């Protein structure tokens, strides 16, 4: 009979807990786009081991969270990102874009050879130089003699 008493005790305690106010969602922050981020803390006794995190986009079409906020939403980081961290990461990304453009300009392949003939491009946009290089070893052996 002790198990039945314990069952009724659990039911009664859950009934009393149902009258207590639930923890409300906490607004955590917002990003540059205007998306709002929220969190409900974890409740291990209620069966939720991890906090519940979500965001409300300002516009459904462009409301994509930044990578830092996305990491926080998925639980890959404990603390939400700070504005300084987001600005720092954006400056690094813009520096990488500028450096990539400079490298592309530095190593740009012209559309003509030294002899003035045009280089044909293949379907993927790369230069087609199949007549310059061997596909099979010894293919151009006879042409060199």
UniProtKB/TrEMBL annotation:
Organism of derivation: Sipha flava (yellow sugarcane aphid)
The family this protein is said to belong to: Belongs to the complex I NDUFA12 subunit family.
GO cellular component term, pick one: respiratory chain complex I
InterPro entries: ComplexI_NDUFA12, NDUFA12
Signal peptide feature range: none
Segments for region (Disordered): 26-50, 109-145
Pfam family membership, one: NDUFA12
Any one Gene Ontology BP term: mitochondrial respiratory chain complex I assembly
Chain intervals with Polar residues compositional bias: 110-123
Protein name: NADH dehydrogenase [ubiquinone] 1 alpha subcomplex assembly factor 2
Gene from which the chain derives: LOC112687257
């Amino acid at each position: 009979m002790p198990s039945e008493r314990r069952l009724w005790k659990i039911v009664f305690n859950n009934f009393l807990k149902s009258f207590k106010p639930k923890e409300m969602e906490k607004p955590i922050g917002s990003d540059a786009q205007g998306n709002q981020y929220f969190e409900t803390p974890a409740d291990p006794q209620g069966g939720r081991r991890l906090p519940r995190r979500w965001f409300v986009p300002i516009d459904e079409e462009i409301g994509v969270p930044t990578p830092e906020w996305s990491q926080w939403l998925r639980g890959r980081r404990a603390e939400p990102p700070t504005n300084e961290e987001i600005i720092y990461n954006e400056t690094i990304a813009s520096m990488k874009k500028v450096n990539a453009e400079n490298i592309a300009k530095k190593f740009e392949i012209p559309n003509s050879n030294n002899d003035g003939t045009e280089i044909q491009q293949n379907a993927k946009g790369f230069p087609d130089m199949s007549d310059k290089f061997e596909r099979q070893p010894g293919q151009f052996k006879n042409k060199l003699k």
